[in-house]
């Protein structure tokens, strides 16, 4: 059975790159009827925070990765397995595969004359019984890593120093803890970010020294921004949570993230999980850097939004609207909003005019729309609104006629009315909006806008 794991460290916001790795593991587990183990690597007590662990679990659930699916196992917490890590270190020492070392960094520098030389093996034969523990690496030959994404990667052993696996107080380092947990959890495939490729020859040595066949490795490509720089949390919007808060749908996120380094082999891009998952193969992951194109993600999201059945769209918008707003009223314009937004957070500004006593005037829109003739148009249209039959067609014809009387095309005549009604120059179709707003409220707004004009706003 394929057993994969996702092993994030809870040291910050959950990154879209982490989400992509998690999804690749999830796809692999799900399509093979295997298991996906969530292991929180929480051994760096100084940098971990419980809210980041919660953030990881909630972000994964948002993507559909949770215990609701029997493929999911965990979460396990690395800190709970320290005894096993220490035991493994002790075994390596007993087998002569690791040794104690008391050298400081300065000692090594003094002997080698360089900071970059790596450890010189000074304590290898000293037979010490305390200190940090170093793994005894082979002196020559190569460590060959077979990576399903990157192919065969060779690391000369000469360049691999005797690396530290446990500190002087016996606490394990990442490189060891990670391997011991993978062994204990019977992991068959390690699918993770490319930045860990450099740890892999060391870890492969550890697997072998602990007497276990190493897993299948797959290092997935880095994700870059439009300048081809690796996405960084200081520079780029990398937190999955930010996308969630902006109103990206999980299914659009999943779809887009899956395509960062992988494709179904034809031109298809918009594909639901149920279609992508069975096609996913690590062998098809492209090793070159993947460009995170937020514009494309927005376009994906817009498509997913438009594909939602209307009641479902309304339901999903709820979290992005004012809780005091009547969803039934929203439902009357929801379809108009659905075709116009790319993310759910944009819905609110499109429909707020319906719920507010008076619209929120955007000053730039106001200045743009309230030119000469504005007052005439508002006055003329208000007069017509008192009696016109209240349907989209008649509302439109009436404004068309008022505009014509002042030598204005409909588009020009609409601008002041739109701002008077909604507060902005862009938004939902005007006549539908007026219809839903109703005669009395529409009239009040036209009059209020005229007052404002007179007041010289
Ligand atoms: N805890 C490591 C990280 O977050 C994961 C290492 C791995 O996947 O092996 O980078």
TrEMBL record:
Subcellular localization(s) per the UniProt record: Cytoplasm
Sequence motif 'HIGH' region, residues: 8-18
Pfam family, any one: tRNA-synt_1c
Nucleotide-binding in keyword set: yes
Functional description taken from the UniProt entry: Catalyzes the attachment of glutamate to tRNA(Glu) in a two-step reaction: glutamate is first activated by ATP to form Glu-AMP and then transferred to the acceptor end of tRNA(Glu).
Domain Aminoacyl-tRNA synthetase class I anticodon-binding residue range list: 312-449
Binding site for ATP: 233
Complex and partners: Monomer.
GO cellular component: cytosol
Family as reported in the entry's similarity comment: Belongs to the class-I aminoacyl-tRNA synthetase family. Glutamate--tRNA ligase type 1 subfamily.
Annotated source species: Sinosporangium siamense
Gene Ontology process terms (BP): glutamyl-tRNA aminoacylation
Motif extent ('KMSKS' region): 230-234
Gene3D superfamilies registered for this protein in UniProt: 1.10.10.350, HUPs (3.40.50.620)
The Glutamyl/glutaminyl-tRNA synthetase class Ib catalytic domain, residue ranges: 2-298
Enzyme class label: ligase
Catalytic activity, EC: 6.1.1.17
Catalytic activity: tRNA(Glu) + L-glutamate + ATP = L-glutamyl-tRNA(Glu) + AMP + diphosphate
Protein keywords: Aminoacyl-tRNA synthetase, ATP-binding, Cytoplasm, Ligase, Nucleotide-binding, Protein biosynthesis
The protein's name: Glutamate--tRNA ligase
CDD domains: GluRS_core
GO terms for MF: ATP binding; glutamate-tRNA ligase activity; tRNA binding; zinc ion binding
């Amino acid at each position: 059975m394929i057993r994969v794991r996702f092993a994030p460290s809870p040291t910050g916001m959950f990154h879209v790159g982490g989400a992509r790795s998690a999804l690749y593991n999830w796809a692999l587990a799900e399509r093979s009827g295997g298991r996906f183990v969530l292991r929180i690597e929480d051994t760096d007590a100084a940098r971990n925070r419980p809210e980041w662990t919660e953030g990881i679990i909630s972000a994964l659930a948002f993507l559909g990765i949770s215990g609701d699916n029997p493929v999911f196992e965990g979460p396990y917490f690395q800190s709970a397995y320290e005894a096993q890590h220490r035991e493994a270190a002790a075994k390596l020492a007993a087998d002569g595969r690791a040794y104690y070392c008391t050298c400081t960094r300065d000692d090594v520098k003094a002997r080698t004359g360089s900071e970059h030389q790596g450890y010189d093996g000074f304590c290898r034969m000293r037979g010490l019984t305390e200190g940090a523990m170093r793994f005894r690496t082979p002196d020559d030959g190569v460590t060959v890593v077979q990576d399903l994404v990157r192919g065969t990667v060779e690391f000369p052993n000469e360049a691999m120093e005797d690396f530290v696996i446990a500190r002087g107080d016996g606490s394990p380092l990442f490189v060891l803890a990670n391997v011991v947990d993978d062994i204990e959890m019977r992991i068959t495939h390690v699918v993770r970010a490319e930045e860990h490729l450099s740890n892999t020859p060391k870890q492969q040595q550890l697997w072998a020294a602990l007497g276990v066949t190493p897993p299948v490795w797959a290092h997935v490509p880095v994700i870059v921004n439009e300048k081809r720089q690796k996405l960084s949390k200081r520079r780029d919007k990398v937190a999955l949570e930010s996308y969630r808060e902006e109103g990206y749908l999980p299914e659009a996120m999943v779809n887009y993230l899956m395509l960062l380094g992988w494709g179904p082999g034809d031109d298809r891009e918009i594909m639901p999980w149920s279609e992508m998952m069975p096609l996913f193969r690590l062998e098809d992951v492209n090793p070159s850097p993947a460009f995170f194109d937020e514009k494309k993600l927005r376009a994906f999201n817009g498509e997913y939004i438009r594909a939602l059945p209307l009641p479902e769209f309304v339901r999903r918008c709820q979290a992005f609207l004012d809780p005091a707003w009547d969803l039934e009223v929203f439902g009357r314009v929801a379809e108009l909003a659905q075709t116009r937004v790319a993310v759910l957070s944009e819905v609110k500004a499109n429909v707020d005019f319906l719920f507010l006593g008076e619209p929120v005037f955007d000053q730039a829109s106001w200045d743009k729309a309230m030119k000469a003739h504005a007052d005439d148009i508002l006055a003329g249209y208000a007069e017509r609104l008192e009696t016109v039959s209240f349907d989209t067609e008649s509302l439109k014809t009436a404004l068309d006629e008022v505009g014509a009387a002042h030598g204005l095309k409909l588009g020009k005549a609409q601008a002041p009315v739109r701002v008077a009604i909604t507060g902005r120059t862009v938004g939902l179709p005007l006549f539908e909006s007026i219809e839903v707003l109703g005669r009395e409220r529409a009239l009040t707004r036209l009059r209020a806008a005229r007052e404002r004009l007179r007041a010289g706003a």
